[in-house]
Every structure is written in structure tokens, then in C-alpha cells.
Design goal:
about 425 residues; 13 strands; Aspartate Aminotransferase, domain 1; homodimer; Aspartate Aminotransferase, domain 2; alpha/beta; 14 helices; about 10% strand
């Protein structure tokens, strides 16, 4: 007699990376002992730097001594970590008080939807990281699933080579929640300062909110490209930013992130978003692990930051090698992001996923898993060992770079320009 | 123009422990340098045992080496940890596949409400841990806040000395979600096997679900008292259990817990609760920290379990000392739980909270913070150092054990019996 939440029932398909894991498992059962090259899920492969590991070991030791033991932490996270993030990541443009420590961006994306009325329209870059859609569905902001995995009621804003991967927001209703992910997962493209300025301007004019995911900001190599939405004048009145230590320092399994909710942000009724976020997180969450937070503090100290730069450089060199190998094909991303976004000869990205898995034992991510406009692409992750990148480069060349394909792509590109 | 979630607006007051923290802070600002004795929030004070600390240090080290580094973990938590919990805690009565690792019971309580339709009625033991109410309000299952901090639409089931702290469920509508916390926070009382059997029977007859919180189960000292709802025949068709490493091994800041969702549990439409929980947690959560999980595994090994027994014995001895000091007064709990539940001469528990804070510098928790029937009581936590317990015992005796009070209580007790 206990009624199911109809919103959960709408989640027709499994979460993308869960589905990929299932297919990997099926192959390994069919061909036991096969070694797969994993360029699928964007999961870090390089070890966590020594100063950060040591900080976490020390944090564990402190918990083992009567004098230094601590239990529940500070509400919204360690103040020292919040201060560090404010200084190092935001150049003090947001205050520590506006920074809320989380157990990762994905978890905060889920909680964050509870800030908003079920009537608030949601808009997504298409393709984009599927957790935004999942959180919108589960919080009752959409209709049912449609063919192709999209949801009724969500505004999908195509981001394709044709429009330079910039969402066209002109048709969005006022009061929309627009998710922006830059550097983008999966396309690896970055919104320029001009593009982002226009989006902030639009949000201010149309009283929309921007939910800006900067989980990959540390990969940006140019000072010209904004690493945070708060680099844009006026963003504090319209934007929440969510970010993470996962990709910058290898914390995908350690779990640590943060969200910025500026004091200046207000709902339609004039009430404070910060206050509601404080209520929500105090009620539904209980801080990130104190050991992870100690690691986060070390990651933002001088030695940690130097190690981080090396880690990022390593993954970006992986991306460069993959780009080079595939160079006769048009290929997006990979310069300021750990992802390459590759157009396919066949339109079915799950088919290409299967081909690469079966023939080359390479796991990729089918583009359609990121939204309808992702069909016809695959995402290739640069999170891998150097030797896997070399092997994968050769195999991908062999399978994807057949002469005929290169011609087809060249023709397509010429039509575009 | 972006609309606020009206359910968040209903959360009129701050989360209880947040409010207490504010009052503590106010006192410390007024009287700087004051050393407070904290018997308020149920926060562990003893260090984490060596074998568990060492396991976490090693886990951190493994993340620092290329050969042993791991990123994202296994969906729903490390299989080895799920196996250990199945064996050690549940005597294999639930399968590892039915155990989902979390970052703590509070966080799972929050996510769990999303399983159910907004129309599902919610019933709470009164008084009880406030997170259940918070999660129910935030997921749209209640009306607005009423005087005294209760919410319209929630069925508050008084658990008082008069009814032996057992909820009367006879008036609940079919299809209700009934939260049960045993050993109970805040009263420290435990539902007996008979009482729990009757509740399971009721749930089966009336197709209700029981959300059973066993976070304090490790404190139960008698084999006669059930440590898990699954010790009761037929519970797997009607109950979810949520639990935690926080109190059993000092993990309040490390963050690790689990929930059990049996395969046999189905919604009104016959669909699987397990499946929806799998979807929800895959979409909105991303595993507990791998370092915390390594600690959890060690906690369930032989050495860890021996240390756990010592920790529990230490806190229960604290509780015994407090009970002894207050012995002329009726006092509940503290035998199979780290909390004492003390009736007050004045009805206002916030007033007594303030008196104890001002005069004795002791932080307690006002009973009314746990629900309307908590008024007239305070909760005293036994999580403290032995020396603080001795000091607090003397101070509490001095303030609470005035001769007149004892007489009043004796008369009340006589009227009861």
C-alpha cells in the first residue's frame, strides 16, 4: 500500500555509467581474462600526491589519539578549507561563508534541486553530464521519458560543432534554471569570457538562475578563459557554482567537493537562497569526511598545488596524444579538458561503443548517453596511464581512421565552413 | 523569478543541533574562556581504535601509489564491506546485495524519503531524532509548522513513561511510513522483541513500511533485545533498516553508514523498492569515502570488534555514573543506549537547557527539540570523557536534585503506579 514516488518511476533507464559497467562486465564474462583499456567513465588513474596523502594519514592518526580526536565537524565544512577555497580558487571574490563543503559535485547536484519549486523550468546544455537531468527528474521537474532518453519538460539546448558548442538561450522562459558545465563534460569545450558574459546577462535580464559546474576548471590552460562564473560581473546575483576535488587531485574515490551559494542570490519572493541551502544541507547532509577535508586543505597548499599542476599536465598530454593520433578526423575538446569529443561515421554511438569494446577492448562513452544531441559522437577520456593511451591511440586509429571515413568527415567539415 | 521550494520554507526553525551550537557560541562570546561540558549533541569523544586508524592510514597510502591507486568505487559500496556487514551485523540474515553503503544514517534518511510518493502518510515516535521529520518536510509529505515545532500531517505517536515508550499505532492509516528508532534517540529506551514483533505484525496487516534506525544497536547489552528489525520474522517484507558506524566506532566525523533494502520489499504497485533505491543512490550519491570504507572493514574484523566492545563499555559506564548521580530522580535510558532521558520539574526544556548552560556550563539537549512529547524532559548524552562525567554528575546533582524536586517526582511516580 505504500506508494512509490512516480518521479523515480520516470527514470526508465539505468544511470549511464552503471549501464557501461554492466556491458563491461558482460564482455568480461564472455571473454574472461581480457584486459580492457578504460577511456569511458572520467575516472582518475594517477596517484594522489604525497603531501595530500600524508595530510590524510595524519588526519587518521589524529583521530586515533585522545588529545586530538574530533567527532562531528563544523557545520558546512572546515572553516580552514572554506577559507583556502575562497583564497586559492576564487581569489577572495566569494567569501568562505558562501562556500559549502560537500562529498562531491554529483551529490550536491542532487541536493540542490530541492532548493527549487517543482514548477521551475529546467534547461540543459545538450549533450551534458547526465546527473543534472537525473536530479531534475527525481525532484519532479519533468514529465516522462521520451524515446532517445530525453525528458518531457526539459529544455535541451543543443551544443554542437555547428553552433560552436554554445547554448542558444533566447527561447527560454523567464525564471529558468540553466545548468552550465564548463569545461564541458562531455564535449571538452570551454565557454569563453564573452559567451559566459552573455549568458550571465541573459540570466539577469530574464531572472534565470545558472547552476555552473566547474568540476574541470583546473584543466583550463589559458588566462583568457574563465575558470569560475564569478569571474563574470554580476554573476553573484544569478549563479550557484558547484565544484570538486575529484578531477583536480585524484579524489574520485575520496569524495570531496564544494558549492558556492552567494549571499546576493534571492528567490522570486526575495528570500535568501543561502539560507535555504544552509537549512537543506544541515538537514539532509552531515559534512564530508574529516580525513578527505584534511586532504583538501593540503591540496590547496603550495606543494599540493604544484603537484596538481603536474597531474593536470599529465592528463592533458594524454589528451594531446589522442588528438594527434586521430588528427585526420575533426575532434573537439582535450585542450582545456580531459575529454575528447569525436564525431562518428555511423549515427549510433552505442553501436560504436560496442565496436570499440568488442574489437579494441577499449571502453568509451556513447555520446547519446549525455543527451539527444550527443548521438553521433563518442566521448574519449584522457584519464589513463600513458601506456594505455599509446595502445589506445593505435587501436583507435586502426578502427576509426579508415580512409573512407576521413573523406566523409572532410566533406562534412567543408560543408560546415 | 526562480521559485523557492515551498517545502523548504516550511522549515521554520533551525535544525536543533544548529540552534544549540548558536546558543553555546553566544555564551562563549559573553563569557570568553569558559570551558563547557558537552553532554548535548551525541558526539563521540573517545579515539578511533588503532586497527581501524591503521587501516585508514594504509588506505590513504594505497591512494598515493601508482600500483594501488583506485578512483571511483564499486556501485553501492565496497563488496567486502557489504559482505562483512551481512555476516557480522546481520548473521547473514540479509544478503550483501541488500546492503547499500552510505556516508551516514542522516544522509540516507534524507535520500530515502525520495522513494515515496508525496501522498504517503508519515508517522514518528514522539520524541525522536529530528532528521526524520526534516526529511519528511523537505520531501513534501507534510503541511506547515505548528506551534511547538510539530508539522501538520505528521502522525506523532507519543512515547512517554506512561506508555512504556511504545508507540500506539492502532489509529494509523494503511500505507503509512513509520519511523522507528531503537535504541531510541533521545529516550535511550529499546523496543523489546515482543513490542517490535507487534509492530511488524501491524505493518504487515496494514501494509505500512517501517523505517528502522539501528544507529545505536551496538549499545544493546542483552541478547533478549533485538539489535535489528530483521531479527523479527516477516520484517523483510515491510522494513528498511538504516544504520551507522558513527557511534559504534567513533566515526561521526569520518562518515560511514549503510541501509538495508530487502529484495522482498515492494511498493503498492508491486514494483521493487530495491530497484528504485538503486536508481536513487546511483543518481544522487557517489559512495562513501574509500578511506572511510577501509576503516569500516577493519572495524568489523576481530580486533576492531574487540575495541568496539571496549568503547561501548566506556560510554555505558559513563551513563551508569550519570544515572547513579541522579538516582533519586526517575531517569530513563542509559542501559542499552548512550542517552539518559530526564523528566524536569519545570515543563520548559529550553529553560532547563539555559539554566544548565548558564549555571553549570553543561550543554544538554532540550527534549522539545525531539518532538512535542519531549517537552518536560532533557536528554543527557554519555559521550564525554570520564572526568567530565564526574564533574557533570556533581553539578547536575546540585542543580537538579533539590529536595523539593525529588518530592515532586516521587509524588508523580506514585500517581503513575
Amino acid at each position: 500500500m505504500v506508494e512509490r514516488n512516480a518521479d523515480v518511476a520516470k527514470m526508465g533507464r539505468n544511470y549511464l555509467f552503471h549501464e557501461i559497467a554492466k556491458r563491461k562486465k558482460a564482455l568480461l564474462e564472455k571473454e574472461p581474462g581480457t584486459r580492457l583499456i578504460n577511456l569511458g567513465i572520467g575516472d582518475t588513474t594517477e596517484p594522489i600526491p604525497p603531501s595530500v596523502v600524508e595530510a590524510m594519514r595524519e588526519a587518521a592518526s589524529r583521530l586515533g589519539s585522545k588529545k586530538t580526536y574530533t567527532g562531528y565537524g563544523e557545520t558546512h565544512g572546515k572553516w580552514l578549507l572554506r577559507e583556502k577555497i575562497s583564497e586559492v580558487i576564487y581569489n577572495s571574490k566569494v567569501s568562505p561563508d558562501e562556500i559549502f563543503i560537500s562529498d562531491g559535485a554529483k551529490c550536491d547536484v542532487g541536493r540542490m534541486q530541492l532548493l527549487f519549486s517543482r514548477n521551475v523550468p529546467v534547461a540543459l546544455q545538450d549533450p551534458v553530464y547526465p546527473a543534472y537531468m537525473g536530479a531534475s527528474v527525481l525532484s519532479g521537474k519533468t514529465g516522462g521519458a521520451q524515446d532517445g532518453g530525453s525528458y518531457e519538460g526539459i529544455h535541451y539546448l543543443p551544443c554542437t560543432p555547428e553552433n560552436g558548442f554554445t547554448p542558444d538561450v533566447t527561447t527560454l522562459p523567464p525564471g529558468t534554471l540553466l545548468y552550465l558545465c564548463s569545461p564541458n563534460n562531455p564535449t571538452g569545450t570551454v565557454l569563453t569570457r564573452d559567451q559566459l558574459t552573455r549568458l550571465v546577462h541573459f540570466a539577469r535580464e530574464n531572472r534565470c538562475f545558472l547552476l555552473f559546474d566547474s568540476a574541470y576548471a583546473a584543466f583550463i590552460q589559458s588566462e583568457e578563459l574563465p575558470r569560475s562564473i564569478y569571474e563574470i560581473e554580476g554573476a553573484q546575483e544569478v549563479a550557484i557554482e558547484t565544484s570538486s576535488f575529484s578531477k583536480r587531485i585524484g579524489f574520485t574515490g575520496v569524495r570531496l567537493g564544494w558549492s558556492v551559494v552567494p549571499h546576493k542570490l534571492t528567490f522570486a519572493d526575495g528570500s535568501s537562497v543561502w539560507k535555504d541551502w544552509s537549512t537543506l544541507t544541515s538537514t539532509l547532509f552531515n559534512e564530508a569526511s574529516n580525513i578527505a577535508q584534511a586532504g583538501g586543505i593540503a591540496a590547496l597548499e603550495k606543494e599540493g598545488l604544484a603537484s596538481q599542476r603536474k597531474l593536470i599536465a599529465f592528463y592533458l598530454e594524454n589528451a594531446r596524444l589522442l588528438r594527434e593520433a586521430l588528427s585526420p578526423l575533426p575532434c573537439y575538446g582535450g585542450e582545456h579538458a580531459p575529454f575528447l569529443w569525436l564525431p562518428l561515421r555511423s549515427k549510433s554511438s552505442w553501436e560504436t561503443f560496442e565496436t570499440l569494446l568488442e574489437k579494441a577492448k577499449i571502453v568509451t562513452t556513447p555520446g547519446v548517453g549525455f543527451g539527444p544531441s550527443g548521438e553521433g559522437f563518442i566521448r574519449i577520456s584522457a584519464f589513463a596511464s600513458r601506456s594505455d593511451i599509446h595502445k589506445a591511440s593505435t587501436l583507435l586509429q586502426h578502427i576509426l581512421l579508415q580512409k573512407a571515413d576521413v573523406e566523409v568527415f572532410k566533406n562534412r567539415e567543408q560543408q560546415r565552413t
